[in-house]
Amino acid sequence: MEREHNYMPERIRWKRKLFRIIFKADTKLGKLFDIFLLVLILLSTFIVMMESVRIFDAKLHKVFVIVEVIITIFFTVEYALRIITIKNKKDYIFSFFGIIDFLAILPFYLSLFIPITKYFLIIRMLRMLRIFRILNLMDFMNDGYFIVTALKNSSRKIYIFLLFLMIFSVIVGSMMFMVEGDREGFESIPQSVYWAVVTVTTVGYGDVSPGTPLGKFLSVLLMLAGYSIIAVPTGIVTAEMRNKRQELGKSCSRCGNNDIDDDARFCKICGEKVV
Amino acid sequence: MEREHNYMPERIRWKRKLFRIIFKADTKLGKLFDIFLLVLILLSTFIVMMESVRIFDAKLHKVFVIVEVIITIFFTVEYALRIITIKNKKDYIFSFFGIIDFLAILPFYLSLFIPITKYFLIIRMLRMLRIFRILNLMDFMNDGYFIVTALKNSSRKIYIFLLFLMIFSVIVGSMMFMVEGDREGFESIPQSVYWAVVTVTTVGYGDVSPGTPLGKFLSVLLMLAGYSIIAVPTGIVTAEMRNKRQELGKSCSRCGNNDIDDDARFCKICGEKVV
Amino acid sequence: MEREHNYMPERIRWKRKLFRIIFKADTKLGKLFDIFLLVLILLSTFIVMMESVRIFDAKLHKVFVIVEVIITIFFTVEYALRIITIKNKKDYIFSFFGIIDFLAILPFYLSLFIPITKYFLIIRMLRMLRIFRILNLMDFMNDGYFIVTALKNSSRKIYIFLLFLMIFSVIVGSMMFMVEGDREGFESIPQSVYWAVVTVTTVGYGDVSPGTPLGKFLSVLLMLAGYSIIAVPTGIVTAEMRNKRQELGKSCSRCGNNDIDDDARFCKICGEKVV
Amino acid sequence: MEREHNYMPERIRWKRKLFRIIFKADTKLGKLFDIFLLVLILLSTFIVMMESVRIFDAKLHKVFVIVEVIITIFFTVEYALRIITIKNKKDYIFSFFGIIDFLAILPFYLSLFIPITKYFLIIRMLRMLRIFRILNLMDFMNDGYFIVTALKNSSRKIYIFLLFLMIFSVIVGSMMFMVEGDREGFESIPQSVYWAVVTVTTVGYGDVSPGTPLGKFLSVLLMLAGYSIIAVPTGIVTAEMRNKRQELGKSCSRCGNNDIDDDARFCKICGEKVV
């Protein structure tokens, strides 16, 4: 191995070294690079946020612009190096993080032509999800993976639930439009549907609220419905999580099946006794 | 079979063909018909919503009316054909979807006499529930059925819970009426009960809120109560869902364990092979 | 038995008959009496509510007063008969329903001296809880009992949770008072605590809301906390319900133990196999 | 034992006696001392709260100050005695309650120089957590421990969930800033993020609410998201609690089943006698 390494042309050795620093976090330099990246992401997000505050922007506009240019140049170079050093370029470019890395620099160049797009830079925050890898926190990664998996597995049920909820909201909203049509905030069905969703999800801004007794009565029914059916997504995710829990727990000594429930005494795949 | 078919009078053959297109989705034409129906439902819902927005209605009133007339004629013809082609006419007419199909066209004809009833057309949205059959999505249907069943099985418990909640809200509302009677929003017991429900369900519009220290103290108790008892419907539905999961599945022939996963080949409790 | 009955003095036979009508619902007259009672309770509640609405009271004050007098006289007579016909008078008078029955008539007589106490009549609604017995709905009674038991068993944990929540709200409220002291709604610590509870329970009236950036930042933390810890009462009640479920399910054929879990194969009390 | 005791110098015997009164609650004096302490804590909290109300402070400022001085002197002496009488001084001083005891007196002395810090006295409320020990309520302590443990064990998952939620809120907030930038309450990204958190947690103050149709549409999506993902922390804590229930309990010596109820005498899975 060592030998082969020595025979490698200088260019390839460099590429390998860079790849390890940029993509992995198992060397000192790689870790430092990742932490530096994290700081830059936070700094960049912070600056975009501050830039949107008029009084800060008035005073510090130039500083903001300079820092942003520097960070974006760094991110651009990093993105280029990622593409250069990785073998399977296509896989990276169209992977979740590859797309995020690209979207993290795109708005800056776009904003040279269309200024408002600058704020899309906030999408850089998604790069923070790399944080899990950076600090090599296996437990955190498992937990994050646990949440995402539970949500993904419940998603079909939740979509159907939301479809039911939307149909329900549109119908209730239309009824309220007929009942409270003259009142501000219920002038049209879309407006009333907006109110219905605000109510059924128990958000309750209060920018729109019923005025007539009949309207209030309907609202009360809607609130009670919302208060009751909030149980549905909760039930779905809870049941899913109870199931998923095990996946990260024990595994069968014979067949390696790692979906062992807490109360299992035999592996459900091969029938082996669970230790 | 083939023969018998050939002997059928032309009229009956046509009826069978139409029945299959309209009611089933297992032929190409049947699928196309269903998708076309879905588009019409969405378009119709969209137009009713837009028509309720004054500025759109002012500009496009004629277009809206024409499209609505066309869609309603189509729906009427479709409804007639459904009744003609099906054998068991009574069963269809009084089934859930039969009633929906009827209610989807009724408001239009009613609105010729009483204009406001036009907005009941929004009930057409319920026809969207056919979407599950249209795309032949068995998994989606199962999930929808799962949610509906869990809610249906929990419904008696939830009704009792809502009865408790209503009695509680009326009593708390009356107390608040005595405490805050002079303040706007608490002028009568029904008004105060409305406020109590808004609070206990954690909606909290803020159109009515307590003014006196004692009133605020009572509100705090009510909020804490609402925050705690939201657990009740959630607990009911979650327990029900966990149960449904098991009921829908297999059970072990030896030990009767009914928590058998879909991919299980052996009972996790006694090690028996799952048939 | 029959004989003994015949020898009973007329007075006692009447008492027995009345007792059965008033307290039980297993005879036709008893059922009718209970339904009549339920109607009166609803009517009385409705009238007290309507009386609090100024415009209705202005028009119909006399009608309201007359109906109320009649209903209260009926309830008073009924209360007297209940005491007369029952054997164990003390047990009834100090039972839950005995106290409710008394409180249902007290406010009327009190209101002759102190008018405002009239609205306490709303407590009559609690008599509606008899509804379960009236309609002899065993299943409904079981479900109501199920909810009450689950809440009772969880109550100690929920009280402790609420104690934590109160301490937390007082501390957060005090911090907000120091941060936003000059803003309306945060002028004193009790006011700020009120705001903190409104926020942490996700009610969010909006009658008080933070104004300074630091205040908004603290609010965001508080909301996220409230959003997360709502899981605690839910978790408590759900776990309790899952446990309680069984109590109404199977029971052991040998020892009669009726606390059989869904996945139990042996009775946990006597070790008998569960069928 | 008795003898050894007699030979102890007077000073040490006093120290032992005091230690038992102050730190324990197993003697009559110890119990009285604890209850007295609890009353003082409540009184002190109450006075700090009342002092913050302008009208009360105007009238009773002197009384408040005097009572506060007396209570603080008592707490200071108590704190000194605690340090003197305990053997392992370091352990106490840096323990949770040691720090609370110190923070309970610090703000008073600080407030002699910086008046506003007086309100930090509210931290004294945390001393109330001793209430569990005071009344020697083992069951309550277990339940409190149960809640704290369940939250602690779920905390890592909940932190990750909140991290996801924050990233999500920042991105949604930025989008709303671009959509509704001209409207009051959306003038900057931090403001819009504040709104996004208010919405996604279903608090919904209504101090900021969307004005444009597109803004309302985005809000509706955000609310539905918030309504759905509230299931995540609930699912996490519920699963954890169900587990804790089992962990705190016994397990079967034959089959390892760890779902053994408190009153179980036989394992419900294998029928083995529970030891």
From TrEMBL, chains A, B, C, D:
The cross-references to Gene3D superfamilies, in alphabetical order and at most eight, read: 1.10.287.70, Voltage-gated potassium channels. Chain C (1.20.120.350)
* Places the protein is found: Membrane
The main place the protein resides is: membrane
Specify the Ion transport domain's residue ranges: 31-246
Keywords, comma-separated and alphabetical: Ion channel, Ion transport, Membrane, Potassium, Potassium channel, Potassium transport, Transmembrane, Transmembrane helix, Transport, Voltage-gated channel
What's this protein's name?
Ion transporter
Q: Does the keyword Protease apply?
A: no
The domain of life for this entry's organism is: Bacteria
Q: Does the keyword Lyase apply?
A: no
PANTHER family reported for this sequence: POTASSIUM VOLTAGE-GATED CHANNEL PROTEIN SHAB (PTHR11537:SF254), VOLTAGE-GATED POTASSIUM CHANNEL (PTHR11537)
Its membrane topology? Multi-pass membrane protein
Which InterPro entries does the annotation name? Ion_trans_dom (IPR005821), VG_K_chnl (IPR028325), Volt_channel_dom_sf (IPR027359)
- The membrane-spanning stretches of this chain are 32-50, 62-81, 93-113, 158-179, 217-239
